[in-house]
Predict the 3D structure of the following.
Amino acid sequence: MAQLLIRDYERMLDIVAAVLQLDDPDSAWKLIAERLHETLDCDNLVILSGIRVDERTGHADGWAPVSLGESLADVVQRRVRQKHPLVPYLAAGQHGPVAVSQLCDSWRDSEWCSEARADCGSTYQMGLPLPDAAARGAGIVVFGSQRDFGERELAFAARIQPLLLGVHRQLRELRRLRGELTSAPRGPESAPSPEDFGLTPRELTVLGLLAEGLTTRAIGRRLTISPHTVNRHLEKVYRKFGTNNRVSTVSVAKRAGLVA
């Protein structure tokens, strides 16, 4: 694996710091896409996609680095049907970042490459899987037209992959908890919100998993963080709730309508 430069690690730290300071977690992927766009020197777009190989379906959110929303969904569906080289790669459970040219000997002469040039003006692609059993086929695809992605870009992608997977899991859990709260019976209009307690999105996510009966270690595995970090979040929740144990904390959260 290529040796990364000091500035590469500095850019990773910049991305981590920027994500941790976000007030709106839903904007995390936009921010990450912008930073990857700069760091990987790609001149096109980054896509977070979910592919169901058995169902021959997929979806995508794209940035260039401006958000393209769901406008790339049709392109992803077509690539799945055409068995783009990344599709069998993900289906086989491969986790490492890879230049698509490594998966296809005649990539530049392929139909996939021709369509990529026609669709978005790009010749080269790099896949960065997000190996998550709860969302098979999830990953990021980086596009470029100037040169192929080499060892340095692949090494950077491998290093930052755990962070991206953690963000992916965090947002999925947060959306699920929000959905449960939306569908749960509502109390009086004056019922408190997470903001009333000063809970951050991460603390709300940890609280929701705690209410489901998950242990500290299980919460850490779900969110790709250490048990020590989970305990730090729980301590902050206890302090904000004025409680000192899990049972009373979950009880307060349920009465306040913060967990289903």
Notes: Strands lie at 46-52, 57-63, 67-69, 98-99, 124-129, 139-144. The chain has two domains: 6-161, 184-255.
